[in-house]
User: Fold Substrate-binding domain-containing protein from Candidatus Limadaptatus stercoripullorum.
Amino acid sequence: MRNKKMRRLLIAMVCGLLIAAAAITMVACDPKDTDTINVYSREEGSGTRSAFIELTGVEEDDKDRTYDKATILDGTNKVLTAVAGDKRGIGYVSYGSLNDKVKAISVDGVAPSVDAIKSGDYKLSRPFNIAYKQATVNGNALAADFLNFLFSSEAQEVIAEENYITDDAVEHKPYAKSQGIEAAESITVGGSSSVSPLMEKLIATYETLSGVSDKIELMTSDSTSGMNNAISGTYDIGMASREVKDSEIDAGLTAQVIAIDGIAVIVNPENAVSALTGEQIKNIFIGAVTSWKDIA
Assistant:
């Protein structure tokens, strides 16, 4: 009787060990417990995506080769939030939008900074453009006055304070409010989600200096929508975080650069990687490299 009990006890112990071993094996093989790189990219129409894929070589022969398993997000803040919550995530955002929830990595040995972007040592940079139809400005004194403000010395101070790069080659004069702005006038400014946070600060400063309040509506979408809506007249002024295309100029838009911005490649702060080459970044974002273990 005792032998039977001992045999049952041994069998139970062996089964327990086998179950524990199986559980350990399952945990070790859990896809969530791997070094897989989780790629986060922006939506089509995003000026940040357009500039990023061009600058990194993800775009080749006018073909966007973004990794088909990348998670596509429609906005700067969504990319920041995703990477901040994913230890294996990588994405890209406007340099001026960086926060302490993510880590910006060096690219080809150069860390993103205002000085590095301004000098050209940091290669991932692009213009912040505004675009409008001249007829819109001619017919709206508020639009004309706001455009004058955007290129004033006061606006340049805001741009520098927000960690964007000003154009030092142009002389920027102090803002002086134009005459003839009618109480009924209002304008809509819209487009790039990367330009939008800066534009919000600029609008607030303009309202303080001009005394004009609640007359400028800011709409956040993407660069292509910003340009298309400026062409159609839905927006009085469109915003783009990329170069304005020849086709958009041909459609009647006048474009002006208000600032230069870097594109920061970001990872989770707990990620040991702090530097990548341009080639490595390209290979990650086209899906040629899919594991952090393959990053030397």
Observations:
- The chain is about 40% helix and 20% strand.
